[in-house]
What does this fold into?
Amino acid sequence: MLIAQKNVLLAGLLVISSVRIAKGAPAAEDPEEEVLSACQLPKDVGDCDKNVTKYYFNSESEECEEFTFGGCNGNDNKFDSMEECSEACKKDSEDENKSNAYRMGFDPE
It folds into this structure.
């Protein structure tokens, strides 16, 4: 009887583990954290040949820039308009710069 209970327990753990693995890595719980992560991704023109104008946040220049998107795949650092890109990414970049300045002993104001 004890062996049967262990087998049931092991089978249950196997099912739970399989479901968690099948779902993949968990998404960020905070939607703002997801956007910030997307803004930090490199430009990815994607696949296909549709030549769609999109905008991405260039984390080096800290500016939104236009690029030609292929239309398939790519990553989440692509926005339909310059305004959408700026709203999503520039504020977060400015807040991060202020935070870094405070840590270094400077007052960014």
